[in-house]
Design brief:
- This protein has 8 helices and 9 strands.
- Strand 7 and strand 8 form a beta hairpin.
- The longest helix has 26 residues.
- 35% of the residues are buried.
- By secondary structure, it is an alpha/beta fold.
- The termini are far apart.
- Helix 1 crosses helix 4 and helix 5 runs parallel beside helix 6.
- It is globular.
- The strands form 2 sheets. It has a 7-stranded mixed β-sheet, with helices on both faces. It has a two-stranded antiparallel ribbon with strand order 7-8.
């Protein structure tokens, strides 16, 4: 019983608050620049809301940045690790919606639809929480359908970074690194699609994200592009 209380305290309070403190401290040192902001802003001007789609590998630099896009909701699994992430998200002022394709997904989609009706934007990690890396799971497309909102591929790239030995080779920019946050062209998802069309849409978004990441990471090898963005 005591161990359970200690574990609950760690996952509900200590880890989320301590983790966010470190995230904010590190993020405050980054030199962040936005590339292709019109891909996001044009949608926000016309629709007011959007579904941001990103890989799990790269969400760290955007964790605090996207708190500036509130109100924003994000779907998080009902696992124990998901509980810690949900607490951190709520502390940031986002809205954590608990559910996944394997547990509580239908209710989570309904909740997101309600929140969108209240003016929320939506963030989604397309291949989380356990991969496989770079695969756009069905949840993203279903969210876009339920919310009736376009998807904007959203990527982050750090010039100097740590790479962890995780399933997705999770990346964290080092202190004082230059960081790019880049928005891709919006993807409009039809409300009604057959299974083949649905899978084609998944692949389409996956390819958009892949090309966007490759092109953005290549910037760090090009001094001209670096100077154009950061000077």
């Amino acid at each position: 019983m005591i161990k359970k209380k200690i574990r609950r305290f760690l996952y509900y309070y200590l880890f989320p608050y301590a983790g966010l403190f470190l995230v904010r401290l590190l993020s405050a040192t980054y030199r962040i620049r936005i590339v292709d902001p019109e891909n996001e802003q044009d949608i926000l001007k016309t629709r007011g809301q959007v579904v941001y789609a990103s890989w799990h590998q790269r969400f760290f630099p955007g964790f605090t940045f996207f708190s500036t896009r509130k109100p924003i909701a994000i779907m998080i699994s009902k696992s124990r690790d998901g509980e810690m992430a949900a607490r951190a998200v709520n502390i940031l002022g986002w809205r954590a919606v608990r559910g996944s394709s394997s547990r509580g997904g239908k209710q989570a989609l309904e909740t997101i639809k309600i929140l969108v009706g209240q003016g929320y934007k939506v963030g989604h990690i397309v291949d989380g929480p356990q991969g496989p890396f770079g695969t756009v799971k069905p949840g993203l497309i279903r969210i876009a359908q339920y919310a009736d909102l376009p998807i904007v591929p959203t990527i982050t790239s750090g010039q100097n970074r740590w790479v962890f030995n995780s399933w997705d080779r999770f990346m964290v920019p080092k202190p004082f690194s230059r960081v790019i946050i880049r928005f891709g062209s919006p993807v409009y998802v039809p409300r009604d699609m057959g299974q083949g069309e649905f899978e084609q849409m998944q692949e389409h978004v996956a390819q958009d994200l892949k090309q966007l990441y490759e092109d953005t990471d290549a910037i760090w090898q090009n001094d001209v592009r670096i100077n154009e963005i950061f000077n």
